[in-house]
Amino acid sequence: PITAKLVANFITLAGADRLLLFDLHAEAIEGFFDVPTDHLSPHRIVSEHLKTLGLKHLTIVAPDAGGGRRAEAVANDLGAPIAFGYKRRPDEQSVEVIAISGDVKGRDCVVVEDIITTGNTVSQLAVALRQQGANRVLIAATHPVLSGDAMQKLRKADVEEVIVTDTVPISPEKMDARLKVLSVAPLLAEAIIRVHENRSVSELFR
After folding, report:
1. Could you read off the pLDDT tens digit of each residue along the chain, which spans 206 residues?
2. What fold, for 43-183?
3. Is residue 185 classed exposed, middle or buried when 0-12, 13-18 and 19+ CB atoms within 10 A define those classes?
4. What global pTM score does this model have?
5. Which residues carry out catalysis?
6. Residue 98, C-beta contacts closer than 8 angstroms, at least 6 positions apart
7. What architecture is the 2-41+186-205 domain classified under in CATH?
8. Where are the domains of the chain?
């Protein structure tokens, strides 16, 4: 929290008088800024892509309770039920998925995340979903940091498709046949237009 507030202060001191924020990991960070902010979500972009994939008996999966609101937005778009993963951290460097709550057997499951960094959590969750009888497993994440061997972990976990946006540039060596990159440019452009015309940005997500 201290680092986030420090960065917020730096941005304000640099002269910013309004900010468009994209899918924050913790929504509380929005309150650290002393200027007006708009929190943008790519859930409609993700949902429209999912509609093209022919998924059947779809379940949207939140990797933990903290990701419930993000998963719920996609589930509401698609009229799908939600399942939840439960995890614990044996130490600071590792995560274990210990349970899944919800009906996933025989269903196409889409795990909705804000960010993929190491890929540990989502790959473990994908394996757990398969063990509980899930049919197809896909991952949808806004920010594709994809550090180290993240994509290798997801391939090993038999994730069919990794859907991300272009909020973070992906280097050529990290590109993969299972990676689908969606552009947030139209959403960002519409938000900027609404700001300049003094129209509601939040209406984009109602």
Report:
1. 678 899 999 999 999 999 999 999 888 888 899 999 999 999 999 999 999 999 989 999 999 888 899 999 999 999 999 999 988 777 766 677 778 999 999 999 999 999 999 999 999 999 999 999 999 999 999 999 999 999 999 999 999 999 999 999 999 999 999 999 999 999 999 999 999 999 999 898 87
2. Rossmann fold (3.40.50)
3. exposed
4. 0.91
5. 87
6. 86, 87, 88
7. 3-Layer(aba) Sandwich (3.40)
8. 2-41+186-205, 43-183
